[in-house]
Automatic annotation (TrEMBL):
Carbamoyl phosphate binds at R49, T50, R99, H127, Q130, A251, P252. NCBIfam families: asp_carb_tr, PRK00856.1. It catalyses: carbamoyl phosphate + L-aspartate = N-carbamoyl-L-aspartate + phosphate + H(+). The gene is pyrB. It comes from Exiguobacterium sibiricum (strain DSM 17290 / CCUG 55495 / CIP 109462 / JCM 13490 / 255-15). Heterododecamer (2C3:3R2) of six catalytic PyrB chains organized as two trimers (C3), and six regulatory PyrI chains organized as three dimers (R2). This is Aspartate carbamoyltransferase. Keywords: Pyrimidine biosynthesis, Transferase. Residues 3-139 form the Aspartate/ornithine carbamoyltransferase carbamoyl-P binding domain.
Amino acid sequence: IAHFTSLDALATEDIEQLIERALQLKQGASVRPLPTKTVANLFFEHSTRTKCSFDMAEHHLGLHVLPFETATSSVQKGETLLDTCKTLQAIGVDALVVRHGETGYYEPLQQQLSIPIINAGDGSGQHPSQSLLDLMTMYAEYGHVSGKTIVICGDLRHSRVARSNAHVLQRLGATVIGSGPREWFDETMGITYREMDEAVATSDIIMLLRVQHERHTDGRPFAAEEYHERYGLTEQRMKRIQPEAIVLHPAPVNRGVEIADELVEHPQSRIFDQMTNGVFARMAILERAFETATIKETR
Ligand code: CP
């Protein structure tokens, strides 16, 4: 079963194939419509980009999308995630796109389900479809990431985007560094720390992260202006980035916190391109899920 739960589980060639396919789809490559297949999107955490771009990708592939809302489902009566997924499988759903607050929620599902699980973000664990669209955006710019330096700035400890990207970028030959508050740096990501001023001035790709207040449990007050001055992409820092460098952010963006408001639309920002690319990256992911399923069915 072609689960898509973490890029760590995919061979490097498979990741490169997905990037290539996503780029081709953006250029207008034809799709093989999948009108006989049904998908359900289960979002247990809030989302705009991931949910809407999966919806759009499913529409472009001619998939039937079974409506599912956690707020009106039997999840509210205490039904577990596993039983919810098994129910949808029993009803005839062919693949599940799931976002859930529990890190690694997909581990038991993979053992118990015979339909693909596509991870749309698990707690502070992984966000592989975001990572794929980030890679697609970098490949669209440079054709590769080998030899490039990427700085990931901000709330690394709570970031599934940072965790997914730190691993895969290094596998693809990039140098990844981290910056932002020291206490939010995560030694387990296998990257080195660099101070913000130096990091943004020396990197090819500057990836900013949202401060994830919803995952902070220490109750300490947050000073947005101070954070912006110390760790944000300010106008001053922007003047010192490399002329060919690009700025990424998975969004939603806290304008004026991790990035100055007016820099979101800067010519070197690719933040809205990332959102456009997300549709094509997710089409490639869905195609892969169904291609593998079809191969298995016809054997
Ligand atoms: N980047 C991202 O995952 O955004 P959403 O939370 O809006 O899906």
